[in-house]
Structure to design on (107 residues):
């Protein structure tokens, strides 16, 4: 078994994510994984992030299947109603990808 989100694998964002989120928000998801989650809690190979409107700014709400641990991270970026409600970070053991819920079945 491999260690999920170890940071040594190549990281990507799907076309759907790249076309619906600004680069700095995508980068922030990776930073949250590396700085706030990794080494703090055991991570599965799939992580869910809800994008929530927090008085015009983005709050990332982290959760993962099969775990009761949740976390909200406030970010300084302006929220847009065009943002997807949720994205997933998926680690297949060779690469790590941020995906829309509709794209997860492709992986």
């Amino acid at each position: 078994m491999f260690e999920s989100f170890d940071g040594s694998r190549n990281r990507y964002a799907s076309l759907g994510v790249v076309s619906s989120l600004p680069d700095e928000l995508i980068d922030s998801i990776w930073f949250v994984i590396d700085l706030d989650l990794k080494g703090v809690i055991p991570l599965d190979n799939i992580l869910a992030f809800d994008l929530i409107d927090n008085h015009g700014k983005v709050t990332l709400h982290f959760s993962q299947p099969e775990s009761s641990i949740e976390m909200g991270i406030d970010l300084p970026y302006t929220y847009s109603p065009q943002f997807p409600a949720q994205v997933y970070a998926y680690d297949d053991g060779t690469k790590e990808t941020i995906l829309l819920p509709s794209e997860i079945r492709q992986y």
Observations:
- The two ends are 18 Å apart (CA to CA).
- The chain has a mean pLDDT of 91.
- The CA atoms of residues 56 and 79 lie 5 Å apart.
- Helices lie at 15-20, 23-37.
